[in-house]
Amino acid sequence: MNSEQDINPYEAPSAHSPLPAAQSPSAFFQKPWVVQSAWFLAVAINLPMPLILGFDATADGVARLGMLIGIVMVYSVGVWICLHRAEVMWRLIVGSIFTALSQIWPIVHMIVGLVAMGISKLIFDANREREQIEAIPEVVLTTLLTGIGLILPSLVMGLIFLMLFRIRVFDQKPIALGAGVDTFQPPAETTT
């Protein structure tokens, strides 16, 4: 047989090099105390602007206790998620860096805070005319809604950043470096 007959014109072109594999996660990032410490830092660097805006929106005194309760609740839920779904938390932690940087020009923070205050006002006291929030439950709800409103874009930004740069910070079954597509092992599915 000659070489012209050995070539199949309908065969897919062959790749000369295997696809680049994503970096395997470090064991350091898989330790629970590391995830929880990173979550603490993420909360701490994202607090300045919400606290400044929150102090302006709440009445002096007891109402500000609601902010503390709301912050502790958001932080506690984050710690629980760190223990049970650390891969989600790493996406949130990475994305929270972008949210923290956006405090320089806090448009997102202002919009989220105003929406949270509007929802709280509708739920608790739609007829109030004063600007500042005085009731502790209303301040707690406003703080929780603001936290959720800032967590969602952080989670999306972290997901996009980790996908774009193919960074695998936390994975159950990492891809071995240099492994081709044939040896890919997807993460184990959890059934609950």
Please describe the topology of this protein:
Layout: H1 3-6, H2 32-46, H3 48-57, H4 63-84, H5 86-101, H6 107-124, H7 136-164
Helix pairs in contact: 2-4, 2-5, 4-5, 4-7, 5-7, 6-7
Spell out the key features of this protein.
192 residues; mainly alpha; 59% helix
Mean pLDDT: 83
Shape designation = elongated
The low-pLDDT segments are: 173-177
Tell me about the biggest sheet? none
**Separation of the first and last Cα atoms:** 59 Å
- Described by its quaternary structure, the protein is single chain
- Total DSSP E strands: 0
The percent range for strand residues is under 5%
Which value, in Å, is the CA radius of gyration?
24 Å
Helix content: 55-70%
Class of secondary structure makeup: mainly alpha
- Helix count, per DSSP? 7
Q: Give the count of structural domains.
A: 1
Q: Spell the H/E element sequence.
A: HHHHHHH
